[in-house]
């Protein structure tokens, strides 16, 4: 595990099929700008609203239910 990774390079790599995200604003913007589908796992305040936008309005993600 690394302390820091170049997320831009990771998200555009051809082996990346989706992006597991807590649905923070920056994560959403990075995923959208790179055309990556999301697996949403929100856990705090605004992340649930962001999840609703990505899952229900844009229809580019799936919600992880535990």
TrEMBL record:
InterPro entries: UDP_glucos_trans. Pfam families: UDPGT. GO terms for molecular function: UDP-glycosyltransferase activity. The keyword Hydrolase does not apply. Its EC number is 2.4.1.-. It is an enzyme of class 2 (transferase). Coiled coil: none annotated. This is Putative hexosyltransferase. It comes from Rosa chinensis.
């Amino acid at each position: 595990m690394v302390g820091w990774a170049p997320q831009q390079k990771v998200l555009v790599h051809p082996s990346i099929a989706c992006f597991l995200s807590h649905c923070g604003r920056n994560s959403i913007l990075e995923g959208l700008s790179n055309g990556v589908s999301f697996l949403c796992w929100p856990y705090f305040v605004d992340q649930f609203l962001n999840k609703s936008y990505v899952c229900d309005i844009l229809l580019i993600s799936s919600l992880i239910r535990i």
